[in-house]
Amino acid sequence: MIEFSIPEKKLPSGAYELSASVKEPDSYGDKARESEDSNTIAFKVDKSIPGDSNGDGVVNGSDENSGQPIVTVTDAHTSEGEDKPVGNKDLAVADGIQVEVTIPKGTAGDTVEVTVKTPNGDVKTTAKVEAIYREQVMAK
Question: I want to staple 103 with a disulfide (CB 3.0 to 4.6 A). Which of 43, 79, 107, 122 is the partner?
Answer without folding.
Answer: 107
